[in-house]
Amino acid sequence: MIKRILITGGAGFIGSHVVRLFVTKYPEYQIINLDALTYAGNLENLKDVEKFNNYFFERVNILDADAIANVFDKHSITDVIHLAAESHVDRSILSPLDFVYTNIIGTVNLLNVAKTKWANNLSNHTFYHVSTDEVYGALGDTGFFTETTSYQPNSPYSASKASSDHFVRAYAETYHLQTKISNCSNNYGPNHFPEKLIPLFINNIIAKKPLPVYGDGKYTRDWLFVKDHSVAIDTVFHKGAINETYNIGGFNEWKNIDLVKLLCKLMDEKLGRQTGESEQLITYVKDRPGHDRRYAIDATKINTELGWKPSVTFEEGLSLTIDWYLQNTEWLQHVTSGSYQNYYNEMYANR
Ligand code: NAD
Ligand code: DAU
Questions:
Q1: How far apart are CA 293 and CA 283, in angstroms?
Q2: Which of 277, 279, 259 is nearest to 321 (CA)?
Q3: Which of 71, 169, 181, 300 has a CA that sits 20 to 30 A from residue 240's CA?
């Protein structure tokens, strides 16, 4: 059977890399990108593949179940890779309900349509839900998240993602929908919206603006290059077992302040600035409420069972990422004009 895969959130950061990978690697598949084009969705991310014969775009909000059903009918969707979400923790602290709507209700809408449309041959179809390591909560100085770590979400964002994971599991158990879930650590790379740490700081270093480090700066994240995450999603989609969960991570832990100093050093070199110049922009600001201290993924399962591992080192990936932002100033200007300025002023005004 020819695969006609619905990729939700394909105009966003990770989604656009997944769409590009599938469109170019699998010309025999049809790839349908479903996205509402919120502030985080940008079709400029996909300019290079928009004319491919096997690529289709549908502007649909996943809160609209009828519109999703129409897309299933129009394209005879065989599988779903679900990435559409509200994804920024700080925004979830300001407006939790947006996260409830899109991440929970939107996911349940998709599950309902898939269950209904595939009812006659459930075993021919897969619903793959892309999730986050944040559902596991926070680690202390040691230890890793495994697939059996209990859920303990601490932010409205992670609570909404945890809830959506539970719904996916429940639809597998109750309705025998064939599902897969992956929980990934922090991604970085080209096309990352400059509200998240790395692209925000790259943008601010270029503009010589303050670098707002939350709290003591010793919070730790496990960073993975976005193209490696996309390959992991391809691997889980094609080789992962039905109704299984896979953790995806970079084996690459960094304290925020160390990462920021590395970023400053690399950018000073690339911009021809004096060593230490950008570090002077570092400004410690009020902490994020409920800030998770440390994330670290144990990716042994996907490595040993499916053979996936990251392909680039952090230094390589970060260097590629900075180069991309320096070469794509137009992209950066487009996404930081207009409402971005209001967001930035509101988010950082009281820190
Ligand atoms: P993003 O914010 O860059 O993109 C989200 C996309 O979803 C955008 O294109 C947006 O327009 C679309 N969208 C939002 N609400 C929608 C709605 N109601 N209907 C239809 N489309 C809608 O997010 P991202 O960083 O690319 O993350 C993608 C997925 O991966 C999310 O599910 C996120 O939870 C998960 N994830 C992200 C990371 C990370 O580090 N960024 C890590 C692990 C997991
Ligand atoms: O772990 C996976 C998650 O990673 C994904 O599920 C989320 O969608 C994604 O946004 C990301 O969440 P984080 O909260 O870890 O990412 P963020 O880039 O917002 O922050 C990374 C760290 O940097 C975190 O400890 C907070 C800190 N930070 C962030 C910003 C935006 C700062 O110190 N200053 C800032 O201005």
A1: 19
A2: 259
A3: 71
Residue with tokens 């349908």, as numbered in its chain: 32
Please check whether residue 178 is in contact with residue 123, taking contact to mean a CB–CB distance below 8 angstroms. Answer: yes
User: Helix count (H) and strand count (E) of the chain?
Assistant: 13, 12
Strand ranges (E), the chain: 4-8, 30-35, 55-59, 79-82, 126-132, 179-184, 186-188, 211-214, 220-225, 244-248, 253-255, 282-285
Instruction: Verify whether residue 244 is a known catalytic residue.
Output: no
Ligand 2 pocket residue status of 92, Cβ below 6 Å:
no
H/E element, 270: helix 256-271
Catalytic one among 55, 128, 136, 157? 157
Q: Which domains, ranges and CATH numbers included, belong to the chain?
A: 1-337 (3.40.50.720)
Residue 212 CB less than 6 A away from ligand 2: yes
Kindly report the pTM of this predicted structure. Answer: 0.98
Q: Which of 6, 13, 182 to mutate to test the pocket of ligand 1 (most atoms within 8 A of CB)?
A: 13
Residue 270: Cβ-neighbour burial (10 angstroms; 0-12, 13-18, 19+)? middle
